[in-house]
Design brief:
There is one protein chain. By secondary structure, the protein is α+β, with helices and mostly antiparallel strands. It contains nine helices and 14 strands. Strands 3, 4, 5, 6, 7, 8, 9, 10, 11, 12, 13 and 14 form a twelve-stranded antiparallel beta sheet that branches. A hairpin with a 4-residue loop joins strand 13 and strand 14. The longest helix is centred in the first third of the chain and has 22 residues, at 92-113. The model is unreliable at 1-72, 113-127 and 405-412 (pLDDT under 50).
């Protein structure tokens, strides 16, 4: 029966019902493998499809039952559209999709540049210059602890903290509009060749931040005697508000030409006094006298310390942060490995320049919070002097065992003055 159906596609089969049956199915020209047959006028073979459908093969009739109209419609759909100007244009939907993709990518890049926090605990400007708060009397700035600012203990070094203090002090003067052409000098100070020099610094470290932490530094100034200025700092964890470091310092004026100390001129006082905050020091002053030590009383000595060019500031003297590094050069290595610096008090006696050669001396304190043999804290006396004997800095340091509890003293910003 399969052979009969195949043969009936090419050869006419007599229909028992005559022309009536034949007219029901009609006759069409067959298309073989998608190739259309030519008309009879061209002399090509014309195939008649007046084949009778086979009765049934286990179901409905099988055969060519499509009507002429259906075959005509299929032929129209399969024919390609004529070539015109319109259908030669590009696919506008694909072009629109490509443009949309480019705009979305550009928007994503712009959002990355114009970054804004999505959570309250994310800082708005962790790397900015800072801002004035509390009625213009307190300056606040955030710092992110970088990988190159941490030491062997994976915590920020004391030099890093000191640099943060110094940076906020200068930015405070700059943001307040008092920065002249000197290093932290006001316009009236610049006219008189005056600069600020630190005479005393006291720092208490409750906890050292680590890599990736963001610290918030607040600083303010106040009067210190008739010819001095006190500057305080409060360093806290920017996320939790935990107090990390407190520091207080005293500054006086020096003529950068004569290198002599100077009184505060009235013109300069008029510039800075509106920014003074009346408050107690953030660190209670350690009134104990810093003793003088020499080569005979020192337990540890480090010699031939010389400043490098990068150790000088714009006033052509060694930056005060560098002094701390030199002082710690003579600290005993076992203490550096087992303890961390908890407090430091420094008295600056004179400056030194690029040609200076210094000696660092350290003595274990006879009194205080402990000694090298105790499991608790240790206290040292320090002296940094020139090789010929002139004193540069006297100091005292207190050390606690690493991972010990901090002092537990909560720092605070002083209340606004009336």
């Amino acid at each position: 029966m399969v052979a009969t159906a195949a043969a009936s596609s090419f050869f006419p089969v007599p229909s028992p019902s005559g022309d009536a049956k034949a007219s029901k199915f009609g006759s069409v020209s067959a298309s073989l493998g998608g190739i259309k047959t030519k008309s009879a006028s061209s002399g090509a073979l014309q195939v008649n499809t007046n084949a009778q459908a086979p009765p049934k093969i286990n179901g409905p009739p099988v055969g060519l039952t499509a009507s002429v109209e259906t075959l005509k419609n299929e032929d129209v759909v399969s024919s390609p559209a004529p070539r015109t100007f319109i259908n030669q244009l590009p696919d506008w939907s694909m072009l629109l999709a490509a443009i949309t993709t480019m705009f979305l990518a550009a928007e994503k890049q712009w959002m990355m540049l114009d970054w804004k926090p999505k959570r309250p605990d994310m800082l708005i400007d962790p790397f900015g210059i800072g801002r004035i708060v509390q009625d213009g009397l307190v300056f606040r700035q955030n710092f992110s602890i970088r990988s190159y600012e941490i030491g062997a203990d994976r915590t920020a070094s004391i030099e890093t903290l000191m640099n943060h203090l110094q940076e906020t002090a200068l930015n405070h003067v700059k943001t307040a509009g008092l920065l002249g052409d000197g290093f932290g000098a006001t316009p009236e100070m610049s006219k008189r060749n005056l600069i600020w020099v630190v005479t005393r610094m006291q720092i208490l470290v409750d906890r050292y931040p680590t890599w990736g932490d963001v610290v918030q530094v607040d600083t303010w100034v106040g009067a210190s005697g008739k010819n001095g200025m006190r500057r305080d700092w409060l360093v806290r964890d920017a996320k939790t508000g935990e107090t990390l470091t407190r520091a207080s310092s005293v500054w006086v004026m020096m003529n950068k030409v004569t290198r002599r100390l100077s009184k505060i001129p009235e013109e300069v006082r008029g510039e800075i006094e509106p920014y003074f905050l009346t408050s107690d020091p953030v660190v209670n002053e350690d009134s104990r006298k810093l003793p003088k030590i020499d080569d005979n009383t020192a337990d540890y000595i480090c010699e031939s310390l010389t400043p490098r060019w990068n150790d000088l500031d714009v006033n052509q003297h060694v930056n005060n942060v560098k002094y701390i590094g030199w002082i710690l050069e003579s600290a005993p290595p076992p203490i550096l490995e087992s303890h961390e610096l908890a407090a430091i008090t420094l008295e600056y006696r004179r400056e030194c320049g690029r040609d200076s050669v210094l000696r660092s001396l350290t003595a274990v304190s006879d009194t205080g919070i402990g000694n090298l043999g105790s499991p608790g804290g240790v206290e040292f006396q320090h002296l940094l002097r020139l090789e010929e004997g002139a004193e540069i800095v006297r100091g005292r340091t207190e050390w606690r065992p690493k991972h010990a509890d901090n002092f537990g003293i909560t720092g605070h910003i002083p209340a606004e003055s009336a």
